[in-house]
TrEMBL record:
Organism this protein belongs to: Dyella mobilis
Protein's recorded name: proton-translocating NAD(P)(+) transhydrogenase
Annotated catalysed reactions: NAD(+) + NADPH + H(+)(in) = NADH + NADP(+) + H(+)(out)
EC number annotated for this UniProt entry: 7.1.1.1
SUPFAM superfamilies: Formate/glycerate dehydrogenase catalytic domain-like, NAD(P)-binding Rossmann-fold domains
InterPro entries: AlaDH/PNT_N (IPR007886), AlaDH/PNT_NAD(H)-bd (IPR007698), NAD(P)-bd_dom_sf (IPR036291)
Residue ranges constituting the Alanine dehydrogenase/pyridine nucleotide transhydrogenase N-terminal domain according to the UniProt record: 6-138
Alphabetized Pfam families for the sequence: AlaDh_PNT_C, AlaDh_PNT_N
Domain (Alanine dehydrogenase/pyridine nucleotide transhydrogenase NAD(H)-binding) ranges: 147-309
SMART domains in the cross-refs: AlaDh_PNT_C, AlaDh_PNT_N
Its biological purpose: The transhydrogenation between NADH and NADP is coupled to respiration and ATP hydrolysis and functions as a proton pump across the membrane.
Amino acid sequence: MSITVSALRETAAGERRVAITPEVAKKLRGKGLRVLLERGAGAAAGFPDASYPDAEFADAADVTNQADLLACVLPPDDGVLARLREGSVVVGQLRPHGATARIDMLANRKLTAFSLELLPRTTRAQAMDVLSSQAAVAGYRAMLMAAENSPKFFPMLTTAAGTIRPSRVLVIGAGVAGLQAIATARRLGAQIEGYDVRPETREQIESLGAKFLDLGVSAAGSGGYARELTAEERAAQQQALADHLKVFDAVVTTAAVPGRAAPKILGTSMVEGMKPGALIVDLAAESGGNCELTRPGERVEHGGVTILGPLNLAAGAPLHASEMYARNIYNFAELLIRDGALRPDFDDELVAKSCLVRDGEILFKP
């Protein structure tokens, strides 16, 4: 019997993405696999059932009962996990940090689960790196949000009423989200600068046509992440950044490390030193925010400065976000399926390091 690869309609509030798109369903079917989806699974992302000629459809309970490999965007709820057959495989963003109860349930059900947030940041993993693909969507949308909520135009405009100067915009953090935010600000015509404590990002920032904001503090780390600053380095960074913030009309912050609270970069006094009408979009709101005044999911007004704490921005562009995410899932699934059978190669670093639970045994060490 062929393997059944399945996906359900995501049920988290505001979540519109889907883990399997028509394109990926066709690829899976071409490998001799059966694709079984919940009815309406892709509708919110712009993929009605009729757009899936290579998939079968059933209700959620039947899909779950028959799934050999369940692909998901966000962690399935307990009811779904309880219906999966022993030995089934779950692949997706399982948010493992602090999820002891979920991991225990996966183990008790004798499932095998892969959390793609844990993939090593290597060249070979890029094709299945969900953090990067979804961060690109979030960075793009964060800058659009900044432009929409700013009281000023982003580009320079020459009009009969005179010339309007371009907005000055700063992006803090030059990971995938930050670089996409910088590129988007450039497309919108803003005067853009980028800052990161990792000096190696200067070239990437400048390649996008932005100016690198050098605060004289370096925190080059390993694995693509910055190391933690010392107290002295942090104080120097904070003072230099506070001096520069006074000239910016909009700031987008993107600094985050998986499994940890977001670093606090913008203190209250720094916000109070910004010009009236300035705007902050805190992309790290889900993990506590880079700004002390950020409230996840809310809009805050403080001393004439607006702070936005958006959540799950990638879900707001569900069609393209789903297309990228589903390709990530497909590329990872190729490591799990060999000769038409589910046979993950645990000697493969990408498979081993992303595995939370294997046949009921907990492998994840926070």
